[in-house]
Amino acid sequence: MTGRLVVVSNRVPSDGPPSGGLVVALHDCLHENGGVWYGTSGQINDAPSDGFSDVAGDGYDMRTFDLTQAEHDGYYLGYANSVLWPLCHRRADLMALSTGDFETYIAVNRRLAKMMARELRPDDQVWIHDYHFLPLAACLRELGVTATIGFFHHIPFPAVHDLLALPQHHIFPQWIASFDLVGLQTQRDVAAALEMYRSLVGAEQLRDGSLQYRGRNFEIRSFPIGIDVDAFAKEAGRRDGRALLNLATDERLVIGVDRLDYSKGLDNRLSAFGQYLEAREDGDPRASLLQIAPPTREAVTAYQNIRSEMERISGKVNGLHSDLDWTPIRYIHRGIPRDTLAALYRAADVGFVTPFADGMNLVAKEYVAAQSHEDPGVLILSQFAGAAEQMTSALIVNPYDIGEMAAALRTALSMPLAERRERHEALFKVVQRDDIGHWTDSYLAAMARIAHKPLVAEAV
Ligand code: GDG
After folding, report:
1. Is 358 in the pocket of ligand 1 (CB under 6 A)?
2. Which SUPFAM superfamilies match (predicted)?
3. Which of 89, 153, 154, 424 is catalytic?
């Protein structure tokens, strides 16, 4: 690649060796090509900083900046996580529109743009991640930055009628058009973005697939994110997950793994499991649900309700169905190590992934990667996870329909081996083909192609 790779994400992996697929993949790209990774430090400072601090990176530079308490509250907890997150997850009703948060969000993006603009070079390829930085390219362009700037939106692109609930919706098309390449997870997201340009501002797609808005030419394309399949499969085979749980020989296991977020459909999932238990007939296997749900964004009010809902439903189901030697729902409200997680996925007969809305959902892919090919488990997947666009051999369910999910559990737990193998083989193929390496390679190749496009295209 010519020019440096410059990555921007809310946090940089400054606390030791990177872990988790995305962070490792970005680390590997930077390690290979050299470059810079910008992001917040995770530290709160009394005064806004006017420059970056250096963190030792492995073969590349890591440049971090601190936030003030007011910035953390308004930019991170406020506009990013209490407005944009619910908006993009079809929960405009949960948006907390507080005076000043939008201004703080813009101010943080402006400050970062100002600090970056001093350091960026015209031939840099800048790759910005996530909804924390939607206005960052627009801020950089205002400062005269001409480098190629890409964006990856990890979460769903909002539908137009949801976007209209955002008081600042009119700036959205301009923010997006300031990037050169906008990566979305699915074709469904691309369709939503194109619909926004068509219906809100009347911008149409050109014949080469790119868009033209306010004199800028840019592309919106889907790049479904994946995982490091080989590494995960290897990890999953190292330990016996069933032994970790002390499961009885004939006990079946259903697993759910999610940050405790209202978008993940956890309440309906637990209810569906309860309904499955109620409808269980003599001879049906005894199954337990292991739900791992580490806390997340607890300072945001909307997250406090889901926590008490989980406690209420799991308490109710366990109260009704537990036996002296059996607790049907094991609900763990904390994070567990990645190697343990991999072994637990492998031990589970069913992966139960039922978000109301999700950009992709990597848990679905991790579950498939962790299965043994000889005796694989069954994936139950919400139609609203981005992953459902690729993983069509899963049992696809509507996460709002508790009865349908309970029936899917029954089907999954009694599925014959031949069908389980057939479905798993098809799913594994897709997950392996579109792995994390393919995602970074295809995104960076598209950005490099745009970087080398003759400049006349810009002036059309
Ligand atoms: C966003 C988008 C998109 C979870 N609990 C533990 C743990 N995890 C790991 C999982 C998985 C990751 O966290 C969660 O990834 P998801 O993709 O499921 O969801 P988000 O966090 O919402 O991610 C999403 C993703 O970005 C990537 O673009 O797919 O749609 O919302 O890797 O395994 N890991 C460990 N312990 C836990 O307790 N070690």
Report:
1. yes
2. UDP-Glycosyltransferase/glycogen phosphorylase
3. 154
- On the question of pLDDT at 242 being above 70, the answer is yes
Structural domains present in the chain? 5-226+438-449 (3.40.50.2000), 235-433 (3.40.50.2000)
Is 333 annotated as catalytic? Answer: no
Please state which of the ranges 25-39, 347-361, 444-458 shows the lowest mean pLDDT. Answer: 444-458
SS3 per residue for the chain: CCCCEEEEEEECCCCCCCCCHHHHHHHHHHHHHCEEEEEEEEEECCCCCCCCEEEECCCCEEEEEEECHHHHHHHHHHHHHHHHHHHHCCCHHHCCCCCCHHHHHHHHHHHHHHHHHCCCCCCCEEEEECHHHCCHHHHHHHCCCCCEEEEECCCCCCCHHHHCCCCCHHHHHHHHHCCCEEEECCHHHHHHHHHHHHHHHCCCECCCCCEEECCEEEEEEECCCCCCHHHHHHHHCCCCHHHHHCCCCCCEEEEEECCCCHHHCHHHHHHHHHHHHHHCCCCCCCEEEEEECCCCCCCCCHHHHHHHHHHHHHHHHHHHHCECCECCEEEECCCCCHHHHHHHHHHCCEEEECCCCECCCHHHHHHHHHCCCCCCCEEEEECCEHHHHCCCCCEEECCCCHHHHHHHHHHHHCCCHHHHHHHHHHHHHHHHHCCHHHHHHHHHHHHHHHHCCCHHHHHC
- Residue 154 falls in the annotated catalytic set: yes
360 CB near ligand 1 (under 6 Å) = yes
Whole-prediction pTM: 0.96
Return the residue whose CA atom lies nearest to atom 39 of ligand 1: 338
Ligand 1 in reach of 359 Cβ (< 6 A): yes
What ipTM is given for this predicted complex? Answer: 0.99
Quickly state the pLDDT bin for 24 (edges 50, 70, 90). Answer: confident
